[in-house]
Design goal:
With about 550 residues, the chain is α/β, with parallel strands linked by helices. It is built from 17 helices and 19 strands. It starts with 5 loop residues before the first strand and ends in an 11-residue tail after the last helix. It binds flavin-adenine dinucleotide.
Amino acid sequence: MSDSRHYDVVIAGTGLYGTSLGAILARHGARVLLIERGRHPRFALGEALLPQSAIWPFVLGARFDVPELGHLSHADRIVDHITSTCGLKHSIGFAWHRPGAPAEADHVHQLVPPHLPFYSESHLYRRDVDLFMVEAAQEHGCDYVDETTITDVVWTNEEVTVSTDDARWSADIFVDATGRHSLLAAREGYRDAATEAQTHSRCIFAHVEGLPAIDDWLKADSEGRRLHDGTFHHMFEGGWMWVIPFDNFHRSTSPLASIGLMLDPRVHPEDASLSPEEEFHAVVGRFPTMAAQFEGVRAVRPFVRTARLQYTATTSVGPRHVLAPSSYGFVDPLYSSGLVHSFESVFRVASHLLGGLRLDGSSGPRSDFSAASLAPIDALHRAQWADADRMASTAYAAMRDPRTWAAWTQVWLAQVLFSDLWLQRACFRFFESASTDELDVLLQGNRPGSASPLAPHREALLDDLAALLADSRDPQATATEMLARLSAESWLPRHVYDWGSAAARSIDFSRPEVAGALLEWGFTASPEPLRSALFDFSLPGPAPT
Ligand SMILES: Cc1cc2nc3c(=O)[nH]c(=O)nc-3n(C[C@H](O)[C@H](O)[C@H](O)COP(=O)(O)OP(=O)(O)OC[C@H]3O[C@@H](n4cnc5c(N)ncnc54)[C@H](O)[C@@H]3O)c2cc1C
């Protein structure tokens, strides 16, 4: 460790948030101390990436010149530089199940994102990835202490002081990336005693070996690709399950998979008479196709059963301190937004702190890091949480019935497609100009994408459909109305996907003709102002490594 006891930034918690932020800040000359209560390598959740959570590490790596972050953005770069224990996320798949009946082929959805040269989605084996990132942060200059318990955090107008039983450090600002049991949320009374979340869910999860591919029972629509080659979701009334194989990449050496059952406790109350593993199999046993897939799996670490997962806090900033998104709140892992939120926040917080510490070359006094000056960070975390709660609670309402679930899946696809495009646009414009200003566009608005031309319209649509689903008494009528709404939306590219048709269940943007048709629509036929504000880049971009 450095002799200095004063740091620019002290960060508690060395998950991907703390280490990504620490690496960026240290790379740009900040004196950073990382404090970890545990010790790497250690287990962590947050394994499935989305296009956005794969693109974000690329953006962060390019914007802040931290190549190790860029390695997280591509399955091949992970094997080349980090570990061969991660899997591939070629697609996102869903199958809806009725108790006592095998899953039906027309209740399967498969969505395949485009294959672009600069990123691909992975299943992160976090034990190895987090170890790599904590080492990378140190190589960039962070000091690091582990197995360290913080006993106090106090601030004055001038600095913040972080203490343990036998050490004390001061800093300009303290970042709490310790997660659910956030130090500051507990110490400052920020944690809401009763969360406002509309989503109710608990979890039973494990890592297992011996998992057969779901393709032994259900067929993928996309040619030549298994459902097993992505994150697969079993859906049913009041719950869903993630299946995240680590063995599905041709360069992977892992035999493992991550599985997790999410249950609304109002529909599936905990059975405390059963062990977590017994309860897992009891729930799965109600659904024949799921029971068959999980019959022979062997847990390589004990099943864990949680209480209700939702939490939030009154604020995520205060004088000289910031709570990371996972310290501020959490909703539900459906749609894997956790790491998207982490990386969005790292981008905003890193930009803010480098400016406030004057490490970005700007002149003037260093920031006092007052709560008011940190308000844009709080606004981001609040918007992320509220969005996650709306999406997850609406999804739980939709998963009561296969018809509403199918319609909702189209709504989600429409949302995520345009959020991905907003991020991809920034990257393509960056490739063209080599100017990081194109990436800094993502700092506009409360959240990346909130400044896009479609955002208000999409928000209104989501609010309407959330209300419709929450009040639904007739699934067929609700699904019909949802599909009719989608049919009427002029901003959806109709010739690549039959939005609004109950039969539209799969789309494969990895097929060049499908991705090409989307781009052609965007450049020539999409409505204004979408065309001029979203499709204002040139192709092809280079393939950075
Ligand atoms: C059931 C579940 C499934 C999920 N699945 C996904 C998914 O598939 N995809 C996705 O994107 N996101 C997922 N998430 C969310 C994801 O886990 C988080 O968004 C992400 O891990 C947050 O990263 P982090 O670095 O902030 O926190 P973490 O990864 O939780 O790291 C926190 C670190 O802080 C340390 N720590 C804790 N207390 C202290 C202390 N007092 N002092 C010092 N150090 C401390 C811990 O040891 C740990 O190393 C899931 C979450 C849950 C609950």
